Amino acid sequence: MTLPVSLVETTMLAGVRIAAFLAIAPPFNARSVPGTVKAMLALGLALAVGPRLSPLPSDTTGMFVGALVGQAVIGAGLGFLVYLVFSAVQSAGGLIDMFGGFQLATAYDPMSMTSGAQFTRLYQMTALVLLFVSDGYQVVLAGLVRTFDALPLGALVDPAALASTLTTGLTQMMVAALQIAGPLVIVLFLADVGLGLLTRVAPALNAFALGFPLKILLTLAFGSFAFLALPGVVHALTGRSVEQMLGVVLP
Known about the structure:
Blueprint: H1 5-24, H2 35-49, H3 61-100, E1 107-109, E2 114-116, H4 118-133, H5 136-150, H6 159-201, H7 211-228, H8 230-249
Antiparallel strand pairs: 1-2
Helix pairs in contact: 1-2, 1-3, 3-4, 3-6, 3-8, 4-8, 5-8, 6-7, 6-8
């Protein structure tokens, strides 16, 4: 069987971009997704996208190797943008753990390769599950495929546009985390203020000894309401992640 060299080259270049993206972008970056599945998915998407891509005019081996490195950098950059968007959910869980007193039980999660307490891991795992259940991962992959139309194999990402998008994405991540965990954080802060005033009024009562169970009760009660809002949050973040990717490659 004879295969055209140009088709093999374009498929390899597309596969490298997709593989680098899948290694960083959620939900594919989780260790629960085997590396074999990631490689097969990257190869399958590259075979589907390759025939409609323009061949890269690489006359030498050095130019082709340089193009491979460039596609890996592009895929990693796009994957990091998606990772930055969905980090808002994990950051919201971290805020709840910190203000609710659960930060003392921080542990390392080998599946996600991150350290966090109960709400951090719960929110992160729920977001990953919702991405698969709601077919949000298909929206993310569709946005990745669209980048090949806006950014051909021979083109390079504008560093200024990438830096601006990363800065904007970091700001939006912090804002989204505050929007998710903000109401509960305010309630816990007011609880601390109330306990402090009660201690000033009645020092012998030692109200702060009651603060730990009270804050745990408030965190579990009001954290459930924030947990119920996660499907809408993940849906909004999915659309935002696609906008971040296309914002880098589109003029």
